[in-house]
Each structure stands twice: as structure tokens, then as C-alpha cells.
Write a structure and sequence with these properties.
Hypothetical protein af1432, Beta Polymerase, domain 2
């Protein structure tokens, strides 16, 4: 059904008879005129879209400015209209909302991840400034999703995924249940079309039986409540396709094995009647253990209040019952919009509502520590999916956390310093590991030690944005300290190499001038950049001493012999941007000349060089800022040798091992050590430690061993 402007007027008048209807009419005429030659992908006139958006906002019972902004939300982006013109015709309040929506829509970025992250940033900024901006954006997205089938497949999938992962959870976080459910179902239809179609057919085949069950159960419940003197409205329904699908996926079952896809909602007159209705339900049917939730006494952060229980029906069929007052139901459906003050020009939230969206302001504070868009997106998504767990401090204060939170999350929720110095926790009086998952009703006491500090491993166990943000901020500060120390070491070494006194770094005015040209505030900033590999010591050295006057100090005889023996002469390994930096070959993988390698800036040991196949590389490269490009330089002269460990699996019979050793000798490779042992059965294993000149010689040795009769397998050991 296509909405008419008259439908919007009727909807607004129903809840706000004092609305400025003249302003609404002028906005309608203006939007119709500006969009008159535009057509949507569906073939409909473009005006259909702003009408649908405005009607959705009227359904949320928003103020006149919001509905007017719904009619005008695309005129700045898609026509020649300026925001100044909107302000002149319709007032600053309307223009403010339209400008906020336009800023979000106009963003363009190089990558999809960056686009999603920055869009989310903009939306959060807009919400904190005026929550009506995101309400208009949600209404806009809702109608776009209703007509998504007219777009090309790749755009359709991208928009559906963004809706499922960002917009629907955002609507849920703001408590707008009706929009959240529809956005999820529409996105599910496009992301999993086959699953959606199969599920829809299965539910349709059960339609008659479900309808009969809802009718009979509802009538029985109605009679029982009446006997207790409880006036209530009873509504039975089949759950949304998305919620059913999620449960099927989570439990690894099919629809035939799922029975609780039917739910009832009881709207009781008062809170007292809600609890009375809960008792009546449990008197009729046996409750499912662990499925009783009291969100009236402890509301969700998005304002949601209700009693939830699951019971076993007469035929062994479980079903869910939600019990709430009509006002609670309105809040569950409309969320933040249900608390709106309908005075004209009132775009700000007040009192209790400000507290209910406090998480937005927290996110804005935490984002200052998050430069990587992917990190920001990851962390905000955590806050958009809060399946709450409620735990208590020793003083009885209730704190809510997303499911999966740990005592570390609890510690940071109390105070940043408590989190930083956390060493353990007591849950319900018992000492537990920090990775223990919090449960509803847990009483948590955090144990601290002044000498304790955050661990990078904590990032794998925390669930809250606050904890993750604070841990990363501390690690980055600590990383800077290490980078400054390494950068200072490398810079001073380079200065000494060219016979430039180290005191020049602090005494020479040219150093300060060079730092200013680089955009650096102090010398430690330069050291940190060198330690991270972003700058080289030469960039400062050249500013102090003219290039033609630089005379490097030659290596002594002992240094040259050692470097040659280790294969680390001047031409062995080149480090991007760094000259004469300390280089060590990692002992965990012993990289061999010719194979692909990566460098990792260490503390006090210069650059550690690893094989790309090293099992430790993924862990070491967690901090991408410490990764640096390295490569083999020059060619092997045969003098340098590299250590290689090989495991050879052979048949346990005489002469095989001797042939293996002979094969190694034929390739002129020296065996340093050998360990051989017999396995169960007829096999044996030998571990050889060899010296080779390069990757080619290593491969020749391995190939020659494979050709020995009786050899089953040859494998290089990297760790």
C-alpha cells in the first residue's frame, strides 16, 4: 500500500492535534516539486519514498520537525536545494535534522570497512547531538529495505548485510522493537534467500495448527486470568523468521525439532498484575528452568521492561510468554521515541532519556583511542549486540554486561585504574580465573596489585567496548615507551657510526628545526617513529651534518668476521628505511637465505627476522606498527651458513639411516647433530640439524633424501 500525504496528516493528528499542519503541507509541496522528475529503481515516482519515510516517523509519534524532515530528507542530497534554502523555508530545527541525515548519506570511502566505520561514527555523533537524525535515518533505511529487490545483486547484499549488522542492532539498542524486527527479517530475506524461503514454507505449512494452538491456549489463559481478577489483553503470535532462524542455527537443529516458535504477550494493567499473571501462567503450565527473566525489576539499557518465561504446554510443546503493561509495550515498540516531548523545536532528550543513551557518549570518548576504522567497527558492534548479564559489586550495585563478559570487563566498569591493576577476582566468594564468564546474579570482587598491568591476552577475553578501549590505550602507551627506547638506540648508533657526538641530539639547534619540519613536537616523537620503522635515523642525521661530510666508521676485524659467519654482512639482509640496524635471525624458525621473510622490531634486539611460515609470525604481527619490510640482499657467496632442522621418517631396517646421511654428505651439507628413535611398528624417525648456504641447497638436500629407498617423509621443522 502506497502512503498518501493525507495518511501522514491523519497519523500526526491522532497523537498531536496541535501540530503545525501548514508546515507539513508546505514540506509536502516542496518535496513533490524538487523530486518531480525523479524515478526510483522500482519505477515509482521518487516522491513515494519521502512519503513512506514521513509516515514511518508519524507512526513513531515524533514531533512535527521530524516528520517534515522525513519529507525533505533527500532534497539536499538528490536535488539542487541547499541546506540554507531548507532553513529559510522550514526553519533551523528542520534544517538541522536534514543536514545530519545528509552528512551520513554523502560519505564515500576507499573501502567498505572504512565506509561502515565512518558512517557509524557520523551516526553516533548525530545521535548525541540530536537523536531525531538517526530516527529519520532508520525510517529511510526501512523503506529502502522494503524495495531492495530492485537493486543489482551486489548492492543488494551489501545493503542487506549493513542493515543486519548495524541498523537493526542500532534500532534494538534504541529500543525501537518494531523497526528492529522488520529490518532483520528484510535483511535475512536477501542475505539467506534459500533459508528464508524454506523457513517461510515450513511455517506456512504449520499455520493452521499454530493458529489453533494460539486460539486454544489464549482462551485458556484468558479464563485463568479472569478468575484471578486480572484484566489483561492476550496476543498470540509466531516469532519472527529471523529469531527462529537464529535459534535453529545456534542449536544446530531444524524446524521439525524446534517447538517454541509460538509466543504469547500479556498486557496487564499494572506492575502488580504483571507479577500476578506470571504466577497464573506457572500455575497452568510447568516453567522451563532457567528461562524466567525479570526485566521489570532490572530493565535493559534500551529501556525495555517485561517479564519473560518459557513453559511446557499440555502436549509437551514449549512456548514463550511475555508479560508487560501497555506503557511498557509502547516503549518496547518505540524505544527512545516513546519518551519524546512533542513540543515544537524540542530536539533534545532530557533527564532519564539522556542516561539511557549514555553509551553513545561513552563510545565517542573511546573512539579517540581508535584510529583503525576496523577496530572501531568491531568494538561498537559489541555494544550493539548486548545480551545482558547482571552482576553485583560487594556493595550491592548492579552492573550490566554483554553475555560473555569476564571479571576484567567488571574491573574496567568500576574504574580504569582498577582494570589496569587487576590480578584476579572472587565470584560469590570463590577465587576464579580472569577468563571466567560472568553469570546473572554473580557477586564480583576484583583483586588488584599496584605492580600489575594489562596483558595483550586480555583482549581475547573482554567483551565490553570500555575494557577493550582502555586495554588498547595502555598497550599503545607502553608500546610507545618501547619504541622510544629502540628508536633512541638506533639513532645513537647511527650517529656514532658517522662520528657525530650523541650530545648533538640535544645541543644542536638544527635538530629542533628538523623536528619542526617533520611535524614532530619533541625528540621522543622522532625516536618513537624510528622505533616503529616510519622514519630513519638518517633523516635527522642529514639535517645536522651535510651529506658530503659524513664519514662512516669502518667495522673492526672481529665484527666483520662475526657478521660473515652469521650471514648478516652488510649485503645479507636489507631493512626498509634503516641502515646498519641490529639484525637477528629468529631462533624459532631459523630463516634460510632465499626464502620469504618478515621483520619485527623488538625491544633492545633491533629487527628480528622470521620466515613467513614461522608458527609465531601471526602472534608477533598482532601489532602491525612493529612490522617492517626486510629482504635478502645481494647473493650468497657460500661462506655464510644457516641452520636447518629436518625430520626424516624412515623404515626401521638396516642401512636406511646410513643412506640418508650419505645423501646429505653428497650435497656438501654439514650435519651438526642427529637424534634417531624407533616408533611403534616398523617406522623410525631421525631429526637432523644441518648447515646450508641457502634455500636452494636445503631443497636439494631434502630432494636427495626423499629419493633414498625406505624414506617415507622429509619435513622441515620451523619451531
Amino acid at each position: 500500500m502506497v502512503r498518501r500525504f493525507e495518511d501522514i496528516l491523519e497519523a500526526v493528528e491522532a497523537y498531536n492535534p496541535g501540530a503545525d499542519f501548514d508546515l507539513l503541507r508546505r514540506a509536502y509541496v516542496f518535496s513533490a516539486r524538487e523530486h518531480r522528475n525523479q524515478v526510483r529503481r522500482s519505477g515509482e515516482p521518487y516522491l513515494v519514498h519521502p512519503l513512506e519515510v514521513a509516515y514511518a516517523l508519524a507512526e513513531l509519534r515524533l514531533d512535527t520537525a521530524s516528520v517534515v524532515a522525513g519529507l525533505l530528507h533527500d532534497v539536499v542530497e538528490d536535488t539542487l536545494t541547499t541546506i540554507e534554502a531548507v532553513a529559510g523555508y522550514f526553519g533551523e530545527d528542520v534544517a538541522h535534522i536534514v543536514a545530519g541525515v545528509t552528512k551520513i548519506s554523502k560519505l564515500r570511502f576507499a573501502s567498505q570497512e572504512q565506509a561502515e566505520a565512518e558512517n557509524l561514527r557520523k551516526m553516533i555523533l548525530a545521535m548525541v547531538d540530536d537523536v531525531r537524525v538517526i530516527l529519520v535515518k532508520l525510517a529511510d533505511r526501512l523503506h529502502n529495505m522494503r524495495t531492495l529487490e530492485y537493486l543489482e545483486p551486489d548492492r543488494r547484499e551489501r545493503i542487506a548485510r549493513e542493515t543486519f549488522e548495524i541498523y537493526a542492532p542500532l534500532a534494538n539498542r534504541l529500543g525501537i522493537g518494531r523497526i528492529k524486527v522488520e529490518l532483520e527479517d528484510l535483511a535475512f530475506r536477501h542475505l539467506e534467500p534459500e533459508a528464508h524461503e524454506a523457513l517461510a514454507r515450513a511455517l506456512e505449512s504449520r499455520q493452521e495448527a499454530s493458529a489453533q494452538f494460539i486460539r486454544e491456549t489464549g482462551e485458556r489463559l484468558e479464563r485463568a486470568l479472569a478468575e484471578q481478577g486480572i484484566e489483561a489483553e492476550i496476543r498470540g503470535r509466531i516469532k519472527s523468521t529471523t529469531s527462529i532462524w537464529r535459534k535453529i542455527q545456534r542449536q544446530g537443529i531444524d524446524l521439525d525439532q524446534m517447538y517454541d516458535y509460538v509466543a504469547f504477550r500479556i498486557l496487564a494493567a499494572s506492575v502488580k498484575d504483571c507479577y500476578g499473571a506470571l504466577g497464573t501462567v506457572h500455575a497452568l503450565w510447568r516453567p522451563v528452568p532457567g528461562r524466567i527473566k525479570d526485566f521489570i525489576a532490572m530493565p535493559k539499557p534500551n529501556m525495555y521492561q517485561s517479564l519473560h518465561t518459557s513453559v511446557m504446554g499440555d502436549r509437551g510443546q514449549p512456548f514463550e510468554v511475555q508479560i508487560r503493561t501497555p506503557e511498557m509495550h509502547r516503549i518496547a515498540e518505540e524505544g527512545i521515541a516513546a519518551h519524546w516531548q512533542y513540543k515544537e523545536g524540542g530536539g533534545r532528550l532530557s533527564g532519564q532519556d539522556v542516561e539511557r543513551v549514555a553509551w553513545l557518549r561513552q563510545i565517542l570518548e573511546w573512539q579517540q583511542d581508535l584510529k583503525d576504522p576496523r577496530e572501531f567497527l568491531e568494538m561498537v558492534k559489541v555494544d550493539l549486540y548486548p545480551e545482558e548479564v547482571y552482576s553485583f559489586t560487594p556493595k550491592g550495585k548492579v552492573l550490566s554486561f554483554p553475555r560473555g563478559a569476564t571479571p576484567v570487563d567488571f574491573a574496567y566498569a568500576i574504574h580504569t585504574e582498577v582494570g589496569h591493576h587487576c590480578v584476579g577476582a572472587k565470584i560469590n566468594g570463590r577465587i576464579v580465573p580472569l577468563k571466567t564468564l560472568l553469570q546473572n546474579g554473580d557477586m564480583v570482587e576484583i583483586l588488584t596489585q599496584p605492580s600489575s598491568h594489562p596483558s595483550r591476552d586480555w583482549l581475547a577475553i573482554v567483551r565490553t567496548t570500555r575494557a577493550r578501549s582502555k586495554i588498547r590505550a595502555w598497550l599503545k602507551a607502553e608500546e610507545r615507551t618501547r619504541s622510544v627506547a629502540l628508536g633512541r638506540e638506533l639513532t645513537e648508533k647511527e650517529f656514532r657510526k658517522y662520528r657525530v657526538p650523541v650530545r648533538t641530539l640535544t645541543d644542536d639547534p638544527a635538530v629542533g628545526e628538523a623536528l619542526r619540519r617533520m611535524g614532530l613536537a619533541e625528540l621522543d616523537d622522532f625516536f618513537a617513529a624510528v622505533g616503529h620503522g616510519r622514519l630513519t635515523p638518517q633523516s635527522l642525521l642529514g639535517a645536522v651534518v651535510p651529506e658530503q661530510e659524513l664519514q662512516p666508521r669502518p667495522d673492526g676485524l672481529v665484527a666483520r668476521v662475526v657478521k660473515r659467519a652469521l650471514g648478516l654482512g652488510e649485503k645479507a639482509i636489507a631493512v626498509r628505511g634503516l641502515d646498519d640496524v641490529m639484525i637477528t635471525l629468529a631462533k624459532c624458525c631459523n630463516p634460510v637465505r632465499g626464502e620469504e621473510i618478515v621483520g619485527y622490531i623488538t625491544r633492545g634486539k633491533g629487527v628480528s627476522v622470521h620466515s613467513v611460515h614461522c608458527p609465531n609470525v601471526e602472534r608477533l604481527m598482532f601489532d602491525s606498527e612493529r612490522r617492517i619490510e626486510v629482504q635478502w640482499a645481494g647473493s650468497s657467496d657460500g661462506a655464510a651458513v644457516y641452520e636447518v632442522r629436518l625430520r626424516v621418517e624412515i623404515e626401521d631396517r638396516p642401512g636406511v639411516l646410513a643412506k640418508v646421511l650419505s645423501a646429505v654428505a653428497e650435497e656438501k651439507s654439514n650435519i651438526k647433530t642427529m637424534d634417531a628413535r624407533t616408533d611403534e611398528g616398523s617406522d623410525a624417525r631421525a631429526t637432523l640439524v644441518l648447515n646450508v648456504a641457502d634455500r636452494q641447497q636445503m631443497r636439494r638436500v631434502m630432494d636427495r633424501i626423499r629419493k633414498v629407498d625406505g624414506v617415507r617423509r622429509v619435513q622441515r621443522l620451523l619451531s
